[in-house]
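Researcher: We plan to redesign the surface later, but first we want a full-length starting point. Tokens attached.
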């Protein structure tokens, strides 16, 4: 465990026998570090950089980056889903929307301060035609079925059923989300590569704002 410094400007603070570095809980170098990485990465297998961002949002230990990189590199599920595909070549552009709320994109803002109702994330839905946005409170642990329920309650109830939805979430999440929407035969879910501005740039710009 990192030692507590006595200076008033120390970045480490001891609270109820727990050591904090800002908002990060300091973890001793033990098997708990691996357990934290396993649980956070296992929620969506989002890759090395995103996993590191999620872990560092709440925890700190000196070798955190090295251990996250090593774990993700050895993750069998990530290796199988990655396959031998590459990002070489040009991406096929999305069709241009012709009317509001028929072509949507969705994404999530994670790791926010927890509200009284336990929400610590935001489900973001953007209309690609009008650029209007719905911000829907949710939890980092919200699964695909509950996200589909949020979509029906907050979007479908007000805007109707879209003809396409763009998302850069991992394939397993989207499969569960799609199965929850299978009765809506006029909806098509378009996959995109994470952080690719030509497909999902509008949602990324809203998240950064």
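Model: Full-length starting sequence:
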């Amino acid at each position: 465990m990192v030692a507590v410094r006595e200076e008033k400007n120390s970045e480490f603070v001891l609270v109820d026998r727990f050591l904090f570095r800002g908002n990060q809980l300091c973890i001793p170098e033990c098997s708990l570090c691996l357990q934290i990485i396993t649980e956070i990465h296992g929620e969506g297998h989002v890759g090395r950089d995103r996993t590191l961002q999620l872990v560092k949002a709440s925890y700190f230990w000196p070798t955190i980056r090295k251990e996250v990189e090593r774990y993700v590199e050895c993750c069998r599920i990530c290796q199988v889903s990655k396959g031998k595909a590459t990002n070489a070549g040009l991406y096929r552009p999305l069709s241009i929307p012709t009317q509001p709320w028929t072509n949507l994109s969705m994404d999530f803002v994670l790791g926010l301060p927890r509200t009284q109702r336990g929400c610590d994330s935001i489900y973001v839905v953007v209309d690609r035609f009008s650029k209007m946005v719905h911000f829907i409170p949710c939890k980092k642990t919200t699964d695909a079925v509950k996200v589909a329920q949020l979509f029906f309650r907050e979007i479908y109830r007000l805007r109707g059923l879209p003809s396409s939805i763009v998302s850069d979430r991992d394939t397993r999440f989207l499969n569960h989300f799609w199965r929850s929407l299978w009765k809506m035969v006029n909806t098509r879910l378009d996959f995109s590569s994470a952080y690719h501005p030509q497909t999902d740039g509008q949602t990324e710009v809203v998240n950064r704002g």
